Amino acid sequence: MKRWIVVAGIVAIAVAVALVWQSQPPVDEAPEPGEQSVLGVHELMRNVDRYRDGPTQVKGVVSYVSAEGQGLTLIDVVDFEECGLCDCAPLKLPIRWSGAMPHLQDTVLIEGEVQEAAGKLIFVARSVEPSDARTGTPE
Questions:
Q1: Of 15, 19, 71, 103, which sits 20 to 30 A from 27 (CA to CA)?
Q2: Does 135 score more than 50 pLDDT?
Q3: HSE toward the beta carbon, residue 86, CA cutoff 13 A
């Protein structure tokens, strides 16, 4: 009788582990450098060394605009959805851009590359386009 209870307990634990394992979201692998997949601000900044050698696309929400300084700052779409433009975004991506500036809270798709300027890394944009926040595709 005790053996049956032990076996039933082991089977129950195995089934529970299998169900939890299947319910976990898949782990997205970071794209290889040079691939033209769209990155979020978090992915780019946490793995910046992977993306320093070529063109990259990044999607985010404009949290700061400086027309005089030819720059803007992006935060991750997830951070914006959680807390808006307040200072709770843990990562802010500085962008150098000399074209027409987007507006605060715009979700944009930016193509450019990571460069070093004055000992710091900055994302130098080649293009800035409005983006549909739900799909990540240009409008």
A1: 15
A2: no
A3: 5
Q: What is the mean pLDDT of residues 86-90?
A: 84
Place of tokens 């040079």: 34
Give CA separation, 99 vs 4, 102, 133, in Å: 73, 9, 21
pLDDT of residue 33 exceeding 70? no
- Distance (Å, rounded) from C-alpha 77 to C-alpha 87? 14
Quote the tokens at residue 64.
């700061």
Give 95-131 pLDDT, tens digit per residue. Answer: 999 999 999 999 999 999 999 888 888 999 999 999 8
- pLDDT reported for residue 22: 55
Contact (CB, 8 A) for 88 and 82: yes
